[in-house]
Amino acid sequence: MTEDSLDDLIEVKARVEQEIRQRAKAELVALESRRAALLALLGEGPGVPVEKSEKAPVVSFPKYRDPATGKTWSGKGKRPQWFDADRAEDFLIAQNDLLAA
Fold this sequence. Notes:
About 50% of the residues lie in helices and about 5% in strands. It is mainly alpha-helical. The protein folds into two domains: about 1-55; about 65-100, no CATH class. The termini are far apart.
């Protein structure tokens, strides 16, 4: 082998590597297109709105009542100003009151 033939081989190698990169990119584009088509069939993927499951609303029954105003609080969420944690028992709503309402 001569010096010229080594240069020729290096040039051929560079062209082959470039061809491999181009074909790999083309294959990726084709795969992405196929993937998008399959996802669309399933109702998933970009541009297809995903249905969100609706959760049943959480129903909280009142547990405490302000004797002055009659306002109630379930004990969940932000504590109202009228509620005094030290006197929580004073604000409890009796089970009989809940059944009567």
